[in-house]
Design a protein that fits this description.
The protein is of the alpha+beta class. The protein contains 8 helices and 19 strands. The strands form 6 sheets. Strands 2-1-6-7 form a 4-stranded antiparallel beta sheet. A 4-stranded mixed beta sheet has the order 5-8-9-10, sandwiched between helices. β9, α4 and β10 form a beta-alpha-beta unit. The longest helix is centred in the middle third of the chain and has 17 residues.
Amino acid sequence: MGEPVGAYGDPALSAFDLDFFDSGRRRRIALGSGWDVRFEDVAPVRGFRWNKGGRGFAGWYYTVTTGSHVGYESWLERDRLIPLDFVPDVVGIASQPFWLHWRDAEAKRRHAPDYFVRLADGRARVVDVRAEDDVDERTAEAFAATERACSAVGWEYAHVGVPDPVFMANVRWLARYRHGRCGRESAIAERLVEVFRQPQELRAGAEAVGNVLRVLPVLFHLLWKGALRADLGGALLSSGTVVHTSEGHVVGLQRRAGGHGLLRPRSGMHGDGSQMRKLSRPATVGVGDRVRFAGQVRAVLAVSARAVTLSALWQTGSRSNPAVRVIIRAEMSVRSWA
């Protein structure tokens, strides 16, 4: 067994224990003896349960990175798991990989990090997911202890909170097309790469290739894989989103202001009612749709069983003063849409 870089003699190697599953068998060993375990392949040390009325909402997400399901304990954890699956440098992901045990002022403490991530260059990263507003003193102490343990064995550590809502909405959309089956039409994929070597708007490029109903799933799959690229943080994906290949350069080409969604507008999308009960909507509502609410056209950022999160985007400024985008989030009951 090799020695962890820069960790020889660190007292943390014996001050912390790792408690995890190894081929179905529970093991507990000192941190210094378990730093080289492939934790990206271990089973979760605790189950994922959803309790009625509870704050959490647990589930399983299929990752193309691992070719298997990875668990999460809340919507926030899921929203942090999807980008891990999206980033090409990530080659392994495990949730709740181990219990970290230590003593704090003679009291026994333990903490299970949310994710263990293996990167393509061999580095390891431990990730804790918690909104900043939910980090109390005891949680902060657990995160600090986990970071100390990770530092001792050469692992990276990250505490992440709520992601950018626009970026997250775009990645959730692309995740629908993450499966390899969406890219099976190789002729369309090759044509898309050829067309977008010259940066251009998403829908215009799709129409140049063929029937958009066949082309768009392949296009989104290529965006997920990184063969095609777009600005996923600036605004929601739309017909006017500028798309290009990894070698392409976007110079002098800007996203068209306003515009419709990825497909042609559907009937019922443009009601003028400013009251919630007068909201015009399509037959179904999904992330990326545009709806008119409170006198403004807003984009759907997220849809849950009980609420829809909307954003109002507008621009101010001039050619000499770059536009500033302002995001407003509003929760509204789905029942009001009936």
